Amino acid sequence: MKLYCLSGHPTLPCNVLKFKSTTIMLDCGLDTTSVLQFLPLPLVHSPRLSKLPGWVSKDGTINLEKVQDPTLLNVFFIELLDLSTIDVILISNYHCMMALPYITEHTGFTGSVYATEPTLQIGRLLMEELVNFMERVPKAQSATCWKNKEIQRVLPGPLKDAVEVLTWKTCYSIQDVNSALSKVQLVGYSQKVELFGAVQVTPLSSGYSLGSSNWIIQSHYEKVSYVSGSSLLTTHPQPMDQSSLKNSDVLILTGLTQMPTANPDGMLGDFCSNLAMTIRAGGNVLVPCYSSGVIYDLLECLYQFIENANLGSTPFYFLSPVANSSLEFSQIFAEWLCHNKQSKVYLPEPPFPHAELIQTNKLKHYPSIHGDFSTDFRQPCVVFTGHPSLRFGDVVHFMELWGKSSLNTIIFTEPDFSYLDALAPYQPLSMKCVYCPIDTRLNFHQVSKLLKEVQPLHVVCPEQYTQPPPSQSHRSDLMLELQPPPMPYRRCSVLGLPFRRRYERIHLLPELAKSLVPSEIKPGVSLATVSAVLQSKDNKHTLQPVPKPLPLPPSKKRKRVVEEPPEVLAPKPLLSGSVPLEAFLAVLHKHGITEVKVEETADGHILHLQAEDTLIQLEEDGTHIVCDNNEPLRTTLRDLVLRFLMKL
Amino acid sequence: MPEIKVTPLGAGQDVGRSCILVSIGGKNIMLDCGMHMGYNDDRRFPDFSYITQQGRLTEFLDCVIISHFHLDHCGALPYMSEMVGYDGPIYMTHPTKAICPILLEDFRKITVDKKGETNFFTSQMIKDCMKKVIPLNLHQTVQVDDELEIKAYYAGHVLGAAMVQIKVGSESVVYTGDYNMTPDRHLGAAWIDKCRPDILISESTYATTIRDSKRCRERDFLKKVHETVERGGKVLIPVFALGRAQELCILLETFWERMNMKAPIYFSTGLTEKANHYYKLFITWTNQKIRKTFVQRNMFEFKHIKAFDRSYIDNPGPMVVFATPGMLHAGLSLQIFRKWAGNEKNMIIMPGYCVQGTIGHKILNGQKKLELENRQTVIPEYEPGWSLEVKLQVEYMSFSAHADAKGIMQLIRMAEPRNMLLVHGEAKKMEFLKDKIEQEFSINCFMPANGETSTVATNPSVPVDISLNLLKREMALGGPLPDPKKPRTIWRASLRLVSPEQALKELGLSEHQLRFTCRVQLQDAHSDSDTHIRIYTHLKSVLKGYTIQHLPDGTVMVESIVIKVSSSPEEPNTKVLLLSWSYQDEDLGSFLSTLLKKGLPAALSSM
Where does the record locate the signal sequence feature (chain B) (predicted)? Predict the structure, then answer.
């Protein structure tokens, strides 16, 4: 059993597990942090951005056009393995499937993808949004010369160190998205899915987002748990199923919180108070966020907050090409929600209170800043919009619009991007910046408790989790400490998982089972010989009774009774024990065989029955009877020898 | 030999009060717990005293599963759990869990508040009963206990309707509840995988019907409604609040829109809006098309259909009214019917099945004069001696989403059951379908009456752990002929299949080899190597079905028996055959030595 690690990003994992000759890809996250290296893509012409000079190297020999093209995404699957050999892809949540089209399209991939319904639907929305963001702005130029190794070498900062920039790809098309998602097969929590009869995979609720799942990959004897993006906090999704992770041989642990020191509840409090402060002062609030996930919790929190804080008249805008769909979809997945929200549906009421916010016109949603929004727009207001990298989407427009006023505030809630890097191209900036990253995924304290509870034999995790974060190297509590220590992986690692498969499940047909006659060899241990035909079909093994040979057609005239060969019957029992010389001689004597010459050899004795001209070689673990032309004698001797042996 | 037993307490050769007991692998499961619409007395509920004469049912049942929210499938649930007594788990899907208590409360109100019955379950009992419900998701494998697992499949009959697979070890039963194999305007078609259950328990409401295409029926329906409205008549469509009603509403809504019709359409109960809300929130349970477009246009927001008020009954002019309940056995639909029955301009369209004893059933059978015949007939609110002339047009349109004969056969093909068991249908029709199933699929088909038990013997295979090395070795062998092998099993807490060598090793025993060697003299005027070939050819012709090899060093091998030829230079024609075999091949060895003693037939060609 092997694990191929294609991504080094701990929260956007992409691993491939080879288990019982099936090749299973676990997640395919898309690392979009690469877009931070580029200038933002504005929705409307930005004189500021277009006036920026190009980049000139220190010695002035290289002159690059500025790159206003954040459409290159870090697609990390290198040639570690042939993507067309992948049998299935298991998706754990909608953030971890954004690279799916790169794998399933134009690669010869013929397998299938398993995901829950909310994961598929919301994942589709996020992909459509990404494509929309990238495609709706006509690109001025597509710079590629920086990718040249010679030039890249002298570039500043992270670009210089970026690896495999040639594999950075432009965004996929909507056709690719549709085609990729058509390969998804829907599964429900605790549904047992058989893969080729060899492996069973089961999604379990992971508590992180709508439809998010951890996966169990198991055979009858081995169990691998794949934990990715799980949460123990009570937010909107169904709580995490922990007990089903018990008794794992290997637990692959990814997707822990990216903000181990930030408490989500505290952050949510900061978020509300900063928001209220800004509005009261007459400023606007910009919240760069994804169109699904934490935004539901933010809206729910605000629903309770705005009445108390006297913000009832402040307009809340949610701008995204998929804003409406995201809000609508969130209401129809009752089965995937926490208990509280489920019981609301029974009333019947929409599970999320944002329905009421929309109904009372407090929350309005628009596909983009164009169209209706421009007429409805009132300030001061709160705007939720993407993309959290601040490089594309409607958020770019609001940065240009509000950045210069210190009355306004931008509140970062998504933990995926460094807010300083995200803001870099907008500097100098007067607007206030508040960083309230809300990451509900497991922290190190929770995970060590969880692991104590479920007790896997081995833990595999990204190497980042085996040491404290570089910025807080003294915090030994911000790492995994386990006994035995976890097996770390990094990008491009291939790990052999410590597994020895020893048994396989086989079925005895009832007729065969009935024919077995076990005999007790030792107390509590019985034995029976099984003689059967093995049938292996779809990786399922069955033992069937040996078919009886067809009775020969009655032979006419020819009487060949003697020449009829013996049928293939049940085999002879296995013999065990040894034949003691003295006792054997005594028995021979009893049967009238008296002239026996005994000769000692290295391993035993040779008995020469002189009258019968027959040799019997007696050894500790074998007896050899050499007897010519005397079938009756041979059979007698055989039976005498058998008397001393144990038949199994 | 293990058995599965199935006993219907209700719905055995009957429609109504579905309640089926299944015993499988030592577990007892109750499937559905319904009431009978046609009765007003004890026969209304299944006879739970079959399970136990006294005391609670908890210790006799491992779980109860409800397939969908129709009262003939869940109407007796609070009675069973709260009045007879059952505290174990009750499983149903989310939509069923949401809607079922509302219908139960409705039913209770009609029975207790209107008919004044006492000794009936209370609102609190419904609440307490629902607390015992564990929601089921589609395709989720729910472990009821260590051995019993259940799994729900989409049934397409009403919102949230499910078929369930019940599995203990390798034995399994599938219960369909009510299902529909053709997608309609708001629901998808039932689907199940090839799970090969030991018994498939199927409803058979439309056992003998093969319905024409849905489109035809819809056109027919719209035409009739249209005609009646055009001539100024009123159309009454008795429905249940949830289910068919929504489908017909979608149908009329689009028709009204297209034809720009003005006549009002009403939906009778306060449930309407609420019901439609359920459909909106459980949109994932509707069909593909509605699910795909719900963000743009929610099919359950109706423009033309408005709430009905009792005072509208006597309004002049045409109108279309959907009124509950669907079988005209009580409530508003019956009240409206009574008012409108006398006018031949009006029309009643019965879109679903009506059980025996209801007024719906009677008028469908062409009865033109209705009277209160006896006390068992459920006609509440009307004094004895009541009678009514039926003049309005009565139309029956099968819109109820049950599988027809074709659909039932289709499901059998999907699931490939080993046995079939029919419930929820009329005996005569079942008989017909039973013959058809037995003919077409050559499987047994049962149709037990209420209280009658059908028993099916199962033949589960025995799971064993086989050592991987042994398995790989055996699989590598896989020759053209079945190869009888001699591994052994060790019985411990579990069964293990290991190779003989490993078994002996584990037991601390040593194997004892017993070998025999035998010399046979033979006259054969050929060279040694030719004799080898002659022996080989001879044995080939005598021993069919054995592996016979002619090895490169000249020896002949039959299975593991070695035959070697030698001769002395003095007597080249006298061959000495050396046969050597182990005890495992004793029978064959003995046979060969006797056979070869007789010499080789002269006629053997040397090649």
Answer: none
